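ok trying again, last paste got cut off:
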Amino acid sequence: MKLEMLNNEFDGKLITFCGLDGCGKTTQIKRLVKWLEENGHKVYLTKQPTDFVRESEIFRTYMDSPKHDGYDYRALSLLCASDRVQHSNHVISQKLKEGYIVISDRYFYSCLANLIARGFKEDMWIYEIAKSIQKPDISFFLNIPVEDAIARVRERPEEKDRYIDVELQKKLHDLYVDIARENQGVVISTILSESTCFERILLEVKKIVGAYV
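nice, full thing came through this time. structure:
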């Protein structure tokens, strides 16, 4: 599960966050953006996949329904991977070149985790595509028990009745930890307090932006 990716040769820095829905990404990203901006950094906040994919029928079917008979998951994964190549090379790279600290909510690692979790462990094309993707300067993987993540999602009024594949979430939970280990990611347990988690995130971020503060 180790990915070969493009080294960041630009002035800016790329920070990514991955993890289950409900793991606390949004909360920690907001805190980090605030801290960076207060310390004089230009910040560009983005997400993957982009809305082009998120709003597609195939994506919404896999996210919101237990019935996927009309679609092949490999087709969705290829669509997401293509979207990430475009986004990496024409959005993220440009912002890094301009000196921004780019923060991405989810990244290519999520594409890999979902592909393997759904049974496509032997698909090698995703490793080839990774060679066209910018390697993060820091990749955070927020870790939380599946039951707690689902409970948090259910607390959102707009998602209280959303379909959630629990077995898939369990597989993703373990895969994110494995992918982090293989790709020098930083695993943060978000069962700890919000402030404690942020302190650990900030400790790592300061290692790459300290010279600019």
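cool. The two ends are 35 Å apart (CA to CA). The chain has a mean pLDDT of 94.
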